[in-house]
Design a protein that fits this description.
heterodimer, A: 302 residues, alpha/beta, Rossmann fold, 5-stranded parallel sheet, two-stranded antiparallel sheet, globular, B: mainly alpha, 2 domains, 17 helices, 66% helix
């Protein structure tokens, strides 16, 4: 028995040492978060148009078509809290910044989200992953008690990063997605059953608060604050509810009552009906991203 | 409590330490030592099982008590006829409980549909107790074996309860025979380093199969099966192949963890899988897949019906009975029955021509690589198994048909939609390669031929890392539902 327990102990120690080495190597490999952080730390003075939001905007706009100085700081699965914190951190030191474009998808403000603990496990895990990535690579903690820097412990080590290939975005922060997913018409679709108005009240209030703060920061630094709702496929729109749209537009009205906001809702825009421009039901692919970038540029006179 | 959960990672070391250090060592001089240790096994097993739903405990306790009692009554019966009556009473009782929980609603629904009557108020809609089919069959084997005189009825109720509820194999097997497992609870277990180390190796490989292969396959399979009408033939085929590995990784992974865990407690369970996808025909596949269930049906259904030593017509009947019952054992759905019938049809030509025991050895025995003929045989058997798994996985016969039709069109020759699943492909390849190299070993991660301990440890660490890095979301084991 002593031999067995001894072997287990030695194996356990060896495993922890091994994990430490993996954790170290992982932290040395670039990814979208570390690159975007580096860019903002070192190149922010060049930015004229800053794109913020989650994957709805990260995949929807090709910044290279948005004119000189466009950069995508948007990132997949991001809760608006981090957009607000990033803007707060950098805006005062961005002399060339003319406009901030924030993508407000239909789902994030009021659906079962990755933000609140009263969500299902998968969504909650997404939330934990997000906290880890921002804490480790962008040095933004979720709150004072947040402790998310150990990736392996949380199961967030992406093995592909160990061969040095996790930087998926280009030099302007844009992650190009070609083609479509296996299950593209259903992936990321809105399940009308998960619509939770009881969550919405609390969550919309918080979402509005952060959006208002972003509008305030832009107003303070004389920067245009543009909010857009990117287009979605018909299979997604089929599940969109009018009361959801009312909430979405209500958020904008609420912010507008205090600060200037330019808003355009492209969710059901007829120009974006073709299947071939979607990666999945709610995310444009690279073809769609090129189209939409030019459209936003034109509509807002950038 | 799932094997791949944090609760079990805490539960197992606690039970292990209490089992060996408190109930084995500190009270070893007590005449009650064995009984106390068995009682501890029962308590730990009931905690493990009650983690799902404490109400299930009443059922398993009732089943255990009745089967134990029937054993005593069979043993004390003064005539063969009385003993037979007690045995049949226990069989009817156990199968009655199983039928009530598992099949009642199915039959009512089917009858209602045939006779066009409403099922209002007729359905029980009860939750199926986890692993009920497994422990029921284990309990049945006891009373049948007592009746047959293969085992003496035990008066030790605690040992018997431990035999029925032993937590490593309680919810998904292997379905142990009383002749193998019960005697192990009637004598003192000794800790053996080699056995325990083998157990840990088996657990590690089981976790790899479950967490890395099965759980990751599940994501793709669920996605494609839920949208099969929209997928190309090649994607459907790939999903079917992934399901073939998912169900193997899931179930054989569970069995490996169960057998490995039992070894930690000084208990030896039977082998449940023996590299089934390296089989050269369907008969060999069935000797290697879910061995404990296959041999159960062979010993308690097939042979009593006459087996293959009867007329051809009866051989056909017996083959169909055993495969249909085996299919139905998996659940109350026509798809399982169709799956059983499908395998019966594949098996029949072999048994009727006397070729069902042609391949009893390991493929390419003593060689590194198989011959071209063996590769062809294995691929054909694998392909037939894949078709079977489509029937098994589908929600209805109609869906099976549509799925198969979806495969058989021109889009089969396009590239499947599998973006983002490269790592899974590599892990499946790793599974195949390792199992091929180790196919003649008593268990896959038996590395006793590697003399350098640092090499063995490197493999363990690499596998542990793969578990952390490539592990999918923890999901339930498929066979719990059966």
């Amino acid at each position: 028995m002593k031999r067995f327990l001894g072997a287990l102990a030695i194996g356990g120690i060896a495993f922890f040492v091994f994990c430490g080495i993996v954790e170290y190597f992982q932290s040395q490999v670039d990814n979208n978060y570390s690159y975007k952080y580096w860019y903002m730390e070192n190149r922010r003075h060049k930015v004229v148009t800053l794109l913020l939001g989650d994957s709805y905007i990260e995949n929807a706009i090709n910044p290279s078509l948005m004119g000189e100085g466009a950069f995508t700081l948007a990132s997949s699965s991001r809760w608006i809290y981090y957009d607000d914190k990033l803007l707060e951190k950098y805006i005062a030191d961005m002399p060339n910044l003319k406009q901030v474009i924030f993508g407000m998808g239909y789902k994030p403000p009021f659906f079962k989200s990755y933000h609140f603990p009263k969500t299902d496990d998968k969504e909650h895990e997404n939330n934990e992953h997000e906290k880890y990535m921002y804490e480790k690579y962008m040095h933004i903690r979720y709150d004072d008690n947040s402790n998310h820097w150990l990736g392996l412990y949380r199961g967030f080590i992406d093995p592909s990063t160990l061969i040095g290939n996790n930087l998926l975005c280009d030099s302007l922060g844009y992650e190009r997605v070609d083609g479509q997913s296996v299950n593209w018409q259903l992936e990321h679709n809105v399940d009308s059953n998960v619509f939770r108005l009881e969550y919405a009240k609390e969550q919309v209030a918080e979402y509005t608060g952060y959006l208002k703060d972003m509008a305030r920061l832009c107003h303070l630094h004389k920067v245009r604050f543009i909010v857009i709702t990117p287009p979605c496929h018909a299979s997604y729109i089929a599940n969109v509810r009018q009361e959801g749209l009312d909430i979405l537009h209500g958020i904008i009205d609420d912010v507008r009552s205090e600060y200037p906001v330019e808003y355009m809702d492209y969710l059901q825009d007829e120009e974006y009906r073709a299947d071939s421009i979607y990666r999945n039901s709610s995310h444009l692919n690279s073809v769609g991203a090129d189209m939409f970038a030019l459209r936003v540029k034109k509509d807002f006179g950038l | 409590m799932l094997f791949n959960s944090i609760q079990f990672a805490i539960f197992l070391p606690i039970v292990f330490l209490l089992y060996w250090f408190v109930f084995d060592r500190f009270i070893s001089k007590s005449k009650w030592q064995l009984r106390l240790q068995n009682a501890f096994v029962v308590v730990a097993s009931y905690v493990f099982y009650g983690w799902w739903d404490w109400r299930f405990l009443l059922l398993i306790a009732f089943t255990s008590f009745c089967s134990w009692g029937s054993g005593i009554l069979i043993g004390n019966a003064d005539s063969k006829k009385k003993a037979k009556t007690w045995m049949w009473l226990n069989i009817v009782l156990n199968l009655g409980i199983l039928a009530l929980f598992k099949y009642y609603d199915f039959f009512v629904t089917e009858f209602a549909e045939i006779f066009n009557i409403s099922t209002d108020g007729l359905l029980l809609k009860v939750i199926l107790p986890v692993g009920i089919s497994f422990y029921t069959f284990q309990a049945l084997s006891y009373s049948i074996d007592v009746f047959r005189g293969k085992i003496e009825p035990t008066k030790d109720i605690v040992a018997f309860f431990a035999f029925i509820s032993f937590f490593p194999q309680l919810v998904a097997g292997p379905i142990e025979r009383a002749t193998n497992l019960l005697p192990q609870f009637l004598k003192k277990r000794e800790f053996n380093y080699d056995n325990a180390a083998d157990g840990m190796r088996q657990i590690l490989w089981g976790l790899f199969k479950k967490i890395v292969v099965a759980d990751n396959c599940a994501v793709y399979v669920d996605l494609v099966f839920s949208t099969y009408t929209e997928q190309t033939g090649s994607t459907l085929l790939l999903a079917a192949i992934f399901f073939t590995f998912q169900i193997y990784g899931d179930f054989s992974g569970y069995s490996d963890i169960a057998i490995g865990t039992a070894k930690l407690f000084g208990v030896k369970l039977m082998r449940n899988f023996n590299v089934p996808y390296f089989s050269r025909d369907i008969a060999e596949f069935w000797r290697r897949w879910h061995i404990s269930l296959t041999t159960w049906f062979r010993d308690y259904v097939y042979i009593p019906l006459g087996g293959s030593r009867v007329s051809k017509a009866k051989v056909i009947r017996n083959t169909f009975i055993i495969f249909l019952v085996s299919g139905f054992w998996h659940g109350a759905n026509w798809t399982f029955i169709a799956w059983g019938a499908y395998h019966a049809i594949l098996f029949l030509p072999l048994i009727l021509t006397g070729k069902n025991r042609k391949y009893t050895n390991q493929v390419a025995e003593g060689r590194w690589l198989p011959s071209l003929k063996e590769v062809g045989q294995m691929l054909l058997t694998f392909f037939l198994a894949v078709i079977g798994w489509i029937i098994f996985r589908a929600e209805s016969i109609g869906q099976t048909w549509e799925y198969l039709c979806g495969i058989c069109n021109r889009s089969l020759f396009t590239f499947p939609a599998a973006k983002g699943y490269t790592a899974l492909g590599f892990n499946i390849l790793l599974l195949i390669v390792v199992e091929w190299i180790q196919r003649d070993k008593p268990f896959i991660l038996d590395l006793s031929s590697i003399k350098k301990s640092y090499l063995r440890w490197s493999i363990y660490l690499a596998l542990l890392f793969v578990l952390f890095a490539f592990g999918g979301h923890a999901t339930n084991f498929i066979y719990f539902q059966f």
